[in-house]
Amino acid sequence: MKLTRNLSTSDLDIIKNDINLDLDIETKVNETKRIRIKELVSFLKTLYGGKCSLRTITRAIYRVRDKKKILIVTKKDNFEQLGIENKDGRARYAIIPHLKNKHGLLDVAFKLLNSKNDADITLALLEIEDTRDITFSLDRLNILTKKISFTNEEKDYQIIRIIKDQIFYRKSIPDAQTLEILRKATVHYRTIKNPNYNNIRPYLIELLGILQDYSFIEELKYDMFSEKTFEAASGNVYSFYSVMDVIDKYQAELFTIQRDLMRKGLEKNTKYIQYVRNQIKVYLRQREQKGNLH
Q1: Which CATH architecture has domain 14-95?
Q2: What is the pTM of this model?
Q3: Long-range contacts of the stretch 273-280 (C-beta < 8 A, 24+)
Q4: Residue 160 in contact with residue 141, Cβ under 8 Å?
Q5: 274-285, pLDDT tens digit by residue?
């Protein structure tokens, strides 16, 4: 005889609540890619208006883990390689499962960068570039930057594109050694042999601007006084909102550049600097208005 259990309304409510809680946990982890368990618990408590106890939430998190919808990692799983910045050895994080798998592939790809086989290096760079949702450790960012050859425009373009993605989108902060290589590459690529890779230098200039490095201003000055590069530069990176903070930081230098251009009778260049300075005003005004909304 098959035994069945009649579920009461109370039982059904419990099951429904468990399903909702599990889905909310899975959704939150998928959205954030990685979240500290402490923060996840706090989020769920707020979401459910305090109706879920710590015990209920904790049980649900481990239930979702047991279903292999999320992974729970600790410091021994190498936080840095998982893009987690936390010095608290007791912290636990919930991450999406494929994040750990991707890091395994990333390990292989970074090792392949040392290969003497061009096909291996090409494949490695493609794999690294495809891993956009992972924040690289400082070591990995350094390894990648040191692979800028200053001779192979195609590969350098790919490497710089990956670094730009890490710094612009993933908010990675390079160390002094990496920054120095980026400065040198920017100067080196003032001249490009293959027009397919004309974006190398604008990418580098934007990176220097995002990092608020003074060499950004040096490149701007070079372009403003160079007939060879002014036309390309005037329609390019110096007016991007992503670099407005560094321009605001060095407004006095911009004024001096504008004054020198005017003295030399370079009217078009002078007007461009004025345009950039006007862009700063718009940017700062919008930032202030945005801040007032909070």
Answers
A1: Orthogonal Bundle (1.10)
A2: 0.74
A3: 273/224, 275/239, 276/238, 276/239, 276/247, 277/247, 277/251, 279/239, 279/241, 279/244, 279/247, 280/244, 280/247, 280/248, 280/251
A4: no
A5: 999 999 999 999
